[in-house]
Amino acid sequence: MAPETTAMVAANTVNKGDVLATARVAGIQAAKSAATLLPMSHTVLVGSTYINFNIADCYIEVEASVDTVDRTGVEMEAMTAVTVAALTIYDMCKSSDRTMTIEAVALWEKSGGRSGTWRREDPDATPR
Asked: Is 100 in contact with 19 (CB distance < 8 Å)?
């Protein structure tokens, strides 16, 4: 993403409107719709969805956290939320920046369900 584009998003001057607010709502809707979008996913009661953005010079990082009281995990709901939020940012900014890419969607932590807790190790903390 061009630095000019991230500056426009941060200043809320993109001509389509408030990019981050729209992306947040899109991500929340996506988390609720994951079972409809993913054929092998099952319907889960989504209790809450939190979408956070980190704006850097040439990218916007999207993070989602989804909670449920159901007996299974909601990692697919969280990853769907992040992806749709990123697609919304792209859609709203594409008229001024076609160089944007969506990269590195990854699950960082999961708790609950049959498999219990899982956390991705921070690659920066691991000795190389």
From this structure: no
**9 class by beta-carbon count within 10 Å (0-12 exposed, 13-18 middle, 19+ buried):** buried
* Residues catalogued as catalytic: 91
CATH superfamily of 3-119: Molybdopterin cofactor biosynthesis C (MoaC) domain (3.30.70.640)
pTM of the complete model: 0.89
Q: Residue 122 pLDDT > 80, yes or no? A: no
Give yes or no for residue 125 having a pLDDT over 70. no
Distance, CA of 74 to CA of 92 (rounded, Å): 27
List, for residues 29-54, the tens digit of each pLDDT value: 999 999 999 998 888 888 899 999 99
Please state, in angstroms and rounded to a whole number, the distance separating the CA atoms of residues 123 and 117.
19
